[in-house]
């Protein structure tokens, strides 16, 4: 019973720290927030139901495992698409791309942690717009993902950036509002 509790506690901590950053990263690869959430959810589901010895693994190993499973899910997604998607350079299909993907996900996590710390009080649309912007998604695609016009996307993004700047300033980061 204690092992099950330890496993659940570790997975909860991992989920709270990495779910949103992973989704933000994967949506940039697959272009669909629902598909990104499905891929990341499947990686966590794998850890919970199939991975052995989680309760004894160090957190770094769990992070590596969830990143690997998430990126595998991304590759499977592209393999299920037609040929134009299979050859996409967005798919992390080799070691160099995998390492770069891990670095990008870690940056996403650091941003996520910083946002939680300074709490800019985003609306849901501002949060999505900022995450898409930070992930490097083009304005046209970001607007399509959000189901809004480009102009509305730019407005949400601009408001989010102003809120971040103000929150960072208030938290002592030294930016001017």
Automatic annotation (TrEMBL):
Source organism superkingdom: Bacteria
SUPFAM superfamilies in the record: Sigma3 and sigma4 domains of RNA polymerase sigma factors
Gene3D superfamilies assigned to the protein according to its UniProt record, in alphabetical order: Winged helix-like DNA-binding domain superfamily/Winged helix DNA-binding domain
GO annotation terms (biological process): DNA-templated transcription initiation
GO molecular function: DNA-binding transcription factor activity
Alphabetical list of InterPro entries matching this protein: RNA_pol_sigma-70_dom, RNA_pol_sigma_r3/r4-like, WH-like_DNA-bd_sf
NCBIfam families registered for this protein in UniProt: sigma70-ECF (TIGR02937)
UniProt protein name: HTH luxR-type domain-containing protein
Organism listed in the record: Niastella populi
């Amino acid at each position: 019973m204690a092992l099950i509790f330890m496993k659940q506690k570790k997975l909860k901590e991992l989920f709270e720290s990495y779910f949103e950053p992973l989704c933000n990263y994967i949506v940039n690869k697959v272009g669909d927030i629902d598909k990104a959430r499905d891929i990341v959810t499947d990686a966590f589901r794998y850890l919970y139901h199939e991975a052995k010895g989680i309760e004894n693994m160090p957190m770094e190993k769990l992070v590596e495992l969830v990143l690997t499973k998430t990126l595998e899910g991304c590759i499977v997604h592209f393999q299920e698409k037609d040929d134009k998607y299979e050859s996409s350079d967005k798919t992390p299909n080799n070691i160099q791309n995998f390492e770069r993907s891990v670095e990008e996900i870690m940056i996403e996590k650091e941003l996520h942690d910083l946002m939680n710390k300074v709490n800019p009080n985003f609306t849901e649309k501002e949060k999505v717009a900022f995450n898409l912007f930070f992930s490097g998604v083009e304005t046209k695609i970001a607007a399509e993902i959000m189901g809004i016009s480009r102009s509305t996307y730019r407005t949400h993004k601009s408001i989010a950036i102003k809120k971040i700047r103000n929150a960072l300033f208030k938290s002592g980061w030294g930016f001017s509002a």
